[in-house]
Structure formats: structure tokens, C-alpha cells
């Protein structure tokens, strides 16, 4: 799983499925990458299907059956290569890729556009032609031995000197309440405002070193509902972090279970 440069994506042509995770009105009305299919963000989140009575394996996961339907309808099988994008620096698209991995998709086949739609249109063609893909079979199977961890594992990591728990939310959210001892790393700090993609590798490594996020150690990520950690997860994978844990329940579940929190006092 990695960030893919726009020129590489363009060179691959139809070897890669292009997946636009924006809302359908954006896909249809604003335009999209040529041959991209539309898989809106809400279609692979559990809360969008509450009326169906289905529940995912954890947090906001949609459940293997529902995810298989969504991806199959988009013409994608689990063996296919795909690149996902949005128009928000990749944070929504990253969530799709992490969900794919959790349901058994080979991470080596998963790519996040380095940038977003607004960066793509500066140099590459777009289309407003709706793509109607041929249905495929997507065999989604949740991998319990994957990167997703439960709250007890996170709590143990807070006391582990060889692990760091990382809060990827904004500063004001962290100040209001965060897991005790968690390090703050707003996911947006990894984004270059000009390119709309990842900051240069040297800058990222300096930032992570400053925060004590060691590539040789264990890193546990959380936010509120596991959307923002998806972008950070892909970024750290890109940088070679091998021991990454993904707390799907995040702060929402942590609070519901009455686990300890701490806050920072603000100066008046």
C-alpha cells in the first residue's frame, strides 16, 4: 500500500481500477479521472446501512458481505490493482484502501493517489462520462490477524516503552480529551498545501522523529471514528513503518467503554 504519483497512475491506463470516493454529485457534476468508477465514502461505512440491521466486525466497518457487494458492483475483484482518490488530500480514499486490506485485499495492489482531484486537474485529463462497470465477484473475508486491534491492546501499548500511541486529530480535539500518554500527530501535518499530496520524505521523517514516532517501534493509531488514521496509516506504510496497529474503535469506542482519558489545560 502506497502513495502513487499522478504520472505513474496515468501511465498504467486500464491496468489499475480508478476509484473515486467522492459523493455522486461531485463525480457526475464536477468531473472525475477518466474511466474512474464512483464508490462514495458512505457506501463502505457501517453507519450508512444502519437501517439494514447489519453490523461490521468492529467500529465503522461495513461487514464483509456488504463490502463485497459494494466492490463487486464497482467491477472490482480482490485480486485487482486499484488507485483511490478524493478531493480532500486522500483522507476519505485512504479509508477505502484500509478497508480493502482488512477484508483480505493484497496491500501491494492498493494505491492512494498522491494528491487529490484538485491536484490531478492541473496537468491531466478528466471526464464527466459516468462509468458503468461490469459486475465482479469480490471475496471479502475479514482478517482477524491483520492490523486492526482492540481497546485492550491499545491500553497495553500505552504502558509499553517500545510502543507509541498516536492521536491523528486536530490540536483542539487532542487538548479536550485524548488517551493518556498519546502523542499528537494531526494527519494534516503530513500534507503539502501546494501539491495537496504528501510532504517530502525528509520533512516527514524529521516531523516523526520530533514526535518520538520511531520506525523501528510499534505504532498504534487512533482518531474519532478511524477515518483520519487511515491517511496516516498509508503514509507510515509508505515510509517503511512495519509494526502498525489500527484502532478501529478509536476514541468513540474508548469513551463508550469508560476507559481513562486526559486533557490539556489551556492558557487563558
From TrEMBL:
Keywords from the named record? Repeat, Transferase
All copies of the Rhodanese domain together span 19-129, 159-263
What terms describe the molecular function in GO for this protein? thiosulfate-cyanide sulfurtransferase activity
User: What Pfam families is this protein classified in?
Assistant: Rhodanese
- Presence of the UniProt keyword Cell membrane in the record: no
Q: What is this protein called?
A: Sulfurtransferase
- State the organism of origin: Halomarina oriensis
Amino acid at each position: 500500500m502506497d502513495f502513487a504519483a499522478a504520472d505513474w497512475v496515468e501511465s498504467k491506463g486500464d491496468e489499475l481500477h480508478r476509484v473515486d470516493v467522492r459523493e455522486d454529485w461531485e463525480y457526475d457534476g464536477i468531473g472525475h479521472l477518466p474511466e474512474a468508477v464512483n464508490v462514495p465514502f458512505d457506501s463502505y461505512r457501517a453507519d450508512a446501512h444502519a437501517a439494514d440491521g447489519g453490523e461490521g466486525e468492529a467500529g465503522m466497518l461495513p461487514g464483509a458481505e456488504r463490502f463485497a457487494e459494494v466492490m463487486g458492483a464497482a467491477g472490482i475483484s480482490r485480486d485487482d490493482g486499484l488507485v483511490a482518490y478524493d478531493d480532500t488530500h486522500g483522507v476519505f480514499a485512504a479509508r477505502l484502501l484500509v478497508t480493502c486490506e482488512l477484508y483480505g485485499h493484497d496491500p501491494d495492489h492498493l494505491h492512494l493517489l498522491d494528491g487529490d482531484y484538485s491536484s490531478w486537474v492541473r496537468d491531466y485529463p478528466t471526464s464527466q462520462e459516468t462509468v458503468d462497470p461490469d459486475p465482479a465477484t469480490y471475496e471479502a473475508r475479514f482478517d482477524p490477524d491483520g492490523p486492526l486491534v482492540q481497546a485492550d491492546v491499545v491500553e497495553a501499548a500505552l504502558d509499553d516503552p517500545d510502543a507509541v500511541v498516536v492521536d491523528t486529530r486536530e490540536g483542539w480535539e487532542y487538548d479536550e480529551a485524548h488517551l493518556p500518554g498519546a502523542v499528537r500527530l494531526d494527519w494534516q501535518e503530513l500534507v503539502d498545501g501546494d501539491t495537496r499530496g504528501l510532504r517530502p520524505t525528509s520533512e516527514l521523517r524529521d516531523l516523526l522523529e520530533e514526535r518520538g514516532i520511531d520506525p523501528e517501534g510499534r505504532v498504534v493509531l487512533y482518531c474519532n471514528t478511524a477515518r483520519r488514521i487511515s491517511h496516516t496509516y498509508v503514509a507510515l506504510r509508505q515510509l517503511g513503518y512495519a509494526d502498525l496497529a489500527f484502532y478501529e474503535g478509536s476514541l468513540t469506542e474508548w469513551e463508550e467503554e469508560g476507559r481513562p482519558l486526559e486533557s490539556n489545560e489551556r492558557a487563558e
